[in-house]
Amino acid sequence: MSILERPDTVAADAALASAHAAAPAPVVPTLEQVEWLSPEPKLWVGSRGGEFAGMVEFSNGHFLATDRVGASLGAHPTLDVAKQRVAEPPRVMRPVLAQAAVVAGVIASAVALMSLSLVSL
Q: Three-state SS for 115?
């Protein structure tokens, strides 16, 4: 009798399959919709879950959108497009890693140029 045919192995496989089938589907977090208020003409303020999400301001014929930290999300032709831009999921910025990559590239280039100049001496 092989290990695959042993009763205890078959029972364990059946229990595992049963538990897997009965397990609830993983919960996928969803972002709450942005709620909009207009505290004054030409200004719309969005909030998500009670937290500031961003705003849209009409200026010089464009709808200027900013995110939750005040960073510009650009000028848009319509209010709906600007609101959609604010409502997009926040992006995780990693400026420290980006700067580290640039510094590492500069250092590597400098080392390569120095080694080439030493070779020509």
A: helix
